[in-house]
């Protein structure tokens, strides 16, 4: 069964209408947020309590509920290759290029204007 909010979690029978706000917000039912292995789109994953999303099982140490990257320390964030970190609204130097690649024409235009205003306004 598919979670109404987008996660393809197999065998999920939860009714998200009754879910707690936390689980609703992170689009996972309580059961699956605690399961050590969840099949998501056919892959074995686990819900990361730090990132509030599913990662591949290989990103976790044994029975940990937070991925290795988060446990390794938050100050590592800037240096890493930002392949799968799409932080909400983060426009720091490290992720700028990633963001630019994924931005729509409209977003790029708005960004150009802002930069232009910064230098010329
Ligand atoms: Zn579920
Ligand atoms: Zn994580």
From TrEMBL:
Q: What is this protein called?
A: SBP-type domain-containing protein
**Primary localization class, coarse:** nucleus
* Assigned keywords, A-Z: DNA-binding, Metal-binding, Nucleus, Transcription, Transcription regulation, Zinc, Zinc-finger
- GO molecular-function terms, A-Z: DNA binding; zinc ion binding
Region: Disordered, residue numbers: 71-102
Any Pfam family hit: SBP
Transmembrane ranges, per UniProt, are none
Q: Which SUPFAM superfamilies match?
A: SBT domain
Cellular localization per UniProt: Nucleus
> Domain named SBP-type: which ranges?
4-81
GO CC, sorted alphabetically, is: nucleus
Q: What does this protein do?
A: Probable transcriptional factor. Binds to the promoter of the SQUAMOSA gene.
